[in-house]
Specification:
The complex is a heterodimer of chains A (69) and B (274).
Chain A lengths: L2 E5 L9 H5 L5 E3 L5 E3 L10 H5 L5 E5 L2 H4 L1
Chain B lengths: L22 H14 L8 E5 L14 E4 L5 H11 L4 E7 H7 L1 H10 L4 E6 L34 H8 L3 E6 L3 H13 L4 E6 L3 H5 L7 H11 E3 H6 L10 E8 L5 H12 L5
Parallel strand pairs in B: 1-2, 1-3, 3-4, 4-6, 5-6, 7-8
Antiparallel strand pairs in B: 5-8
Helix pairs in contact in B: 1-6, 3-4, 4-5
The chains are: A alpha+beta (69), B alpha/beta (274).
The complex binds thiamine diphosphate, iron/sulfur cluster (3 copies) and magnesium ion.
């Protein structure tokens, strides 16, 4: 995996902004309307999700190559 | 925890804004811009806001903060700056707060070139009170007070600020986050009245009534219609149509700031001219 996520779900309001702007369809909303990482293997660690989350609920950190093995 | 989160009052989060409201994006951009400026810290920076959804931001920001009266953030901020010119003073305001009830304070703040950085969260509507038209509601857009679409020609707050005498004038959007942070950062560095208009989506009181889709669609509209100033200037007039609008730095000038002018008055009054 190229990335590691920290989700602060008590802050997530299910607006779908991160889901919509993810270029790789990695994220989705669950039945309660909270974000979850649905296709982690597709993540390119671009950070678009964290960049535009209005509620500071999703944080993405790049994973270094060696650590990713 | 990200370092910029030190500038938030953690016990006040999550904030009260609606799902997908753009205000949270701009509030974060402001603290990230502050973080980039080594001269700004929590003890020498004051956040002043008026009244509105956007103006609630001051309550979440861990600085000395003033949540003032509707339209009056700039006068309060002017007072803070003159009382202690060493402080960095940032104003958070809405399109209604700044250009309707606070319109005169706004132009006179610009005219005096008070050393403030004013960030206008433009959602094109009175969000907090349920969706009345503001002076920045575009022609034809619906509001509770304009059920058939607004016929009142809107203000371009950037042109207004420039004409009134502001010395840094720029626009960005909640979609263009990196650009927004840089725009605010440059505004903080200007000695004088800095005005930044940040477009924000209000899905609840504006988007829904105008069938603009979900919050992401409203941001995609910003992405698709904002044109960087350099490209905008090269566009022929017949291409500056529809929803297209310019973003970027519109104006920058050097001029004495009001606290410097006022210091001279204090010196004379104190006997320096004798
Ligand atoms: C003196 C006064 N008049 C009217 C109001 C009611 N009021 C509260 S917020 C608001 C408009 C807010 O619009 P805007 O500044 O665009 O902020 P937004 O909520 O859209 O962020 C009004 C008219 C008030 N609080 N005080
Ligand atoms: S952008 Fe933030 S608040 Fe919105 S769904 Fe994603 S994580 Fe939740
Ligand atoms: S880092 Fe990029 S690819 Fe990964 S989930 Fe976020 S937006 Fe999608
Ligand atoms: S009414 Fe609009 S501006 Fe106010 S919090 Fe909701 S979405 Fe944001
Ligand atoms: Mg508004």
């Amino acid at each position: 995996m190229k990335s590691e996520f920290t989700l602060k779900l008590d802050r997530c309001k299910g607006c779908g902004i991160c889901v919509s702007f993810c270029p790789k369809q990695v994220l989705a909303l669950d039945t309660l309307g909270k974000v979850y990482v649905a296709n982690h293997e597709n993540c390119i660690a671009c950070g678009q999700c964290e960049l535009r989350c209005p509620d500071y609920a999703i944080f993405m950190d790049k994973v270094k190559k060696e650590a990713a093995k | 925890m990200r370092s910029y989160e030190n500038f938030f009052r953690q016990n006040r989060l999550p904030h009260l804004w609606c799902p997908g409201c753009g205000n949270g994006i701009v509030m974060k951009a402001i603290v990230q811009a502050i973080e980039k400026n080594p001269d700004f810290n929590q003890d020498n920076t004051v956040i002043v806001s008026g009244i509105g959804c956007s103006s609630r931001a001051s309550g979440y920001m861990d600085f000395d903060t003033l949540h003032t009266a509707h339209g009056r953030a700039i006068p309060f901020a002017t007072g803070v700056k003159l009382a202690n010119p060493a402080l960095n003073v940032i104003v958070i305001t809405g399109d209604g707060d700044c250009t309707a009830i606070g319109g005169n304070h706004f132009i006179h703040g610009c005219r005096r070139n008070v050393d403030l950085t004013v960030v206008l969260f433009n959602n094109n509507i009175y969000g907090m009170t349920g969706g009345q038209a503001s002076p920045m509601t575009p022609l034809g857009k619906k509001a509770t007070t304009a059920p058939y679409g607004s016929v009142d020609r809107p203000f371009d707050a950037c042109k207004l600020a420039e004409a009134a005498g502001a010395t840094y004038v720029a626009r960005s959007t909640a979609f263009h986050v990196q650009h927004l942070i840089k725009t605010i950062e440059d505004g903080l560095n200007n000695r004088g009245f800095s005005f930044i208009e940040a477009l924000v989506q209000c899905p609840t009181a504006y988007g829904r009534r105008n069938k603009m889709g979900d919050p992401a669609k409203m941001m995609a509209w910003m992405r698709d219609n904002a044109v960087m100033k350099n490209s905008w200037d090269k566009l022929p007039d017949d291409k500056k149509i529809g929803d297209k609008f310019p973003i970027g730095l519109f104006f920058k000038a050097e001029s004495e700031s009001y606290d410097e002018s006022y210091k001279k008055v204090q010196e004379i009054a104190g006997g320096a001219a004798k």
